[in-house]
């Protein structure tokens, strides 16, 4: 945001000077206020920094250049990840400016897949604690632990994980603190959420990971993972304590286990503003790709037939989001909308007769047995052949599950098959875009869960969209935080989806990607936040006073409150 603004007086407006409580060595140890070699003469004098810094005063851009050279010299991705973590604990502004400058290159290092390696090695790479560590064996101290991070208006955004199901690498115990940290980095980078107003939390319930339990350097509770009543009480005590201490904080649940994720989200979402990225974020970004694909293929939402292969948190989250959108847009019940979606998991097509084998999240999408001829197979090829889907989504982590026979069968029945192999990381993809493109003679509309290079068919180049949650959840969070919404409703999520889908390059050119690139993510986040805030106001959920009703003013109001990595003058 450049130039003066009528909203500069707002508490989150990132303008003017910062009040700094430190001086001397203490100031240089604060990642929030430290400027390193960029402290100007007057601040070196005022804050007693003479003799503590080399004499040459440098700009932030010069610091970024040096830091990038240091980063580039690291021998592998994990070493680069560790370098970035170290920089974050020294100088926050420089860390985010470096990331912003080299976003495309560094994204996979600070997030998936490299962050997964860092989490697996958390206890061995550990240098400095970051975030709030809560343990199930000491539940009476939750408020005391949270008190270390301030109170009241201090915290806007909390990410909490229990570490049971991390980034496709399973139970990582206390190392889950790093996924909470990484998600919050993305909210700052992608949506300008103030880093000083965030709180990463891990709920340490033990671990069932034998490697960690047998590792003498493991830093978490060395006991099997606690479940059942004691677990539920622990989660509840955390939520209640966080709400009491930080009444306006938005709570983002991350990487909870399959049997807990949806259950916990459903328990709290009708009482507080909360979100689960694995369920709702994945659902939103996938639905955005689907809507863009339907626009290109000229298929109406009320007519679409969708198959989801892999019905865990991500698959059922996507199904839920699609059903919500059909229900909201077409004005039919969610139960009716769900009939346009066929979900498959390990036993094949989910049927009501599977009974206890179905998770609570799968039950609404299980089909009546009498819909399916007795004796007919329930495997993916048979379902594709019978359903003739417009959209095929993969969240199965079964590499190569979308075979040539399956894709060709799908392409026989629809003009522009929409195929989304979303399993992460790349080695777990259901099919390669290059193969899908060839098997459909260049007709398929494709989005993937990891980045892929463009593919070519008959001399035409097709760019591949990445279904990256980071284009979606930060903007939703920004809208929720700025509006101080009481709840995050289904309508607000659908508004976010439509705002993201509207940014699709495929709307202008069908050979372009179904989703915008992560490089444009801050602009996308503004559009999503705007849609979320407007919806919160319409639904009577926004609690923030003075939200502008004029579209342009609202955009300015949002931008003024987004944090940018720039050095602000310090005052005592």
Automatic annotation (TrEMBL):
One of its GO terms (biological process) is amino acid metabolic process. Divalent metal cations. Prefers magnesium or manganese. Keywords: Metal-binding, NAD, Oxidoreductase. Its cofactor is Mn(2+); Mg(2+). One of its GO terms (molecular function) is malate dehydrogenase (decarboxylating) (NAD+) activity. SMART domains: malic, Malic_M. Gene3D superfamilies: Malic enzyme, N-terminal domain, NAD(P)-binding Rossmann-like Domain. (S)-malate binds at residues 424, 468. A divalent metal cation binds at residues 254-255, 278. InterPro entries: Aminoacid_DH-like_N_sf (IPR046346), Malic_enzyme_CS (IPR015884), Malic_N_dom (IPR012301), Malic_N_dom_sf (IPR037062), Malic_NAD-bd (IPR012302), Malic_OxRdtase (IPR001891), NAD(P)-bd_dom_sf (IPR036291). The active site is at 111 (proton donor), 183 (proton acceptor). It catalyses: (S)-malate + NAD(+) = pyruvate + CO2 + NADH; oxaloacetate + H(+) = pyruvate + CO2. The keyword Oxidoreductase applies. PANTHER family: MALIC ENZYME-RELATED (PTHR23406), NAD-DEPENDENT MALIC ENZYME, MITOCHONDRIAL (PTHR23406:SF34). This is Malic enzyme.
């Amino acid at each position: 945001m450049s130039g003066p603004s009528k909203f500069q007086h707002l508490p989150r407006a990132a303008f003017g000077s910062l009040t700094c409580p430190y001086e001397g060595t203490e100031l240089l140890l604060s990642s929030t206020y430290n400027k390193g070699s960029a402290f100007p003469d007057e601040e070196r004098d005022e804050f007693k920094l003479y003799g503590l810094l080399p004499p040459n005063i440098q700009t932030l851009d010069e610091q970024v250049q040096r830091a990038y050279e240091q980063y580039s010299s690291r021998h592998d991705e994990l070493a680069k990840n560790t370098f970035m973590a170290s920089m974050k604990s020294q100088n926050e502004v420089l860390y985010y400016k470096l990331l912003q400058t080299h976003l495309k290159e560094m994204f996979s290092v600070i997030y998936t897949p490299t962050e997964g390696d860092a989490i697996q090695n958390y206890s061995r790479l550990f240098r400095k604690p970051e975030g709030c560590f809560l343990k199930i064996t000491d539940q009476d101290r939750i408020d005391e632990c949270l008190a270390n991070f301030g109170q009241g208006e201090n915290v806007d955004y909390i990410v909490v994980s229990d570490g049971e199901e991390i980034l496709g690498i399973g139970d990582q115990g206390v190392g889950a603190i790093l996924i909470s940290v990484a998600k919050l980095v993305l909210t700052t980078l992608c949506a300008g959420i103030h880093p000083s107003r965030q709180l990463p939390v891990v709920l340490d319930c033990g671990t069932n990971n034998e490697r960690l339990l047998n590792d003498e350097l493991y830093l978490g509770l060395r006991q099997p993972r606690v479940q059942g009543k004691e677990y539920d009480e622990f989660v509840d005590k955390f939520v209640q304590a966080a709400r009491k201490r930080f009444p306006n904080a938005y709570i983002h649940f991350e990487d909870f286990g399959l049997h807990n994720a949806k259950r916990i989200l459903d328990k709290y979402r009708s009482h507080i503003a909360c979100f689960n990225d694995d369920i709702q974020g994945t659902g939103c970004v996938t639905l955005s790709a689907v809507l863009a694909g339907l626009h290109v293929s000229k298929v109406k939402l009320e007519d679409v037939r969708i198959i989801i292969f892999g019905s865990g948190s991500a698959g059922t989250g996507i199904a839920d989001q699609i059903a919500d959108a059909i229900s909201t847009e077409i004005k039919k019940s969610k139960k009716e909308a769900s009939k346009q979606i066929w979900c498959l998991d390990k036993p094949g097509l989910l049927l009501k007769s599977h009974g206890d084998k179905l998770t609570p999240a799968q039950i609404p999408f299980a089909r009546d047995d009498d819909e399916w001829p007795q004796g007919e197979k329930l495997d993916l090829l048979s379902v594709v052949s019978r359903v003739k889907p417009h959209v095929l989504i993969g969240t199965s982590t079964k590499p190569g599950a979308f075979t040539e026979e399956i894709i060709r069968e799908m392409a026989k029945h629809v003009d522009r098959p929409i195929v989304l192999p979303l399993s992460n990381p790349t080695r777990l993809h259901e099919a390669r875009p290059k193969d899908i493109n060839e098997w459909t003679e260049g007709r398929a509309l494709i989005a993937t869960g990891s980045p892929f290079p463009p593919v070519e068919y008959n001399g035409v180049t097709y760019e591949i969209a990445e279904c990256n949650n980071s284009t979606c959840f930060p903007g939703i969070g920004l809208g929720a935080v700025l509006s101080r919404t009481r709840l995050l409703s289904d309508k607000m999520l659908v508004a976010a989806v439509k705002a993201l889908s509207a940014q699709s390059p495929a709307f202008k050119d069908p050979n372009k990607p179904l989703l915008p690139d992560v490089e444009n993510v801050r602009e996308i986040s503004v559009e999503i936040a705007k849609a979320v805030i407007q919806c919160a106001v319409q639904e009577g959920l926004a609690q923030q006073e003075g939200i502008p009703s004029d579209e342009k003013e609202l955009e300015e109001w949002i931008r003024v409150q987004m944090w940018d990595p720039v050095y602000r003058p310090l005052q005592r």
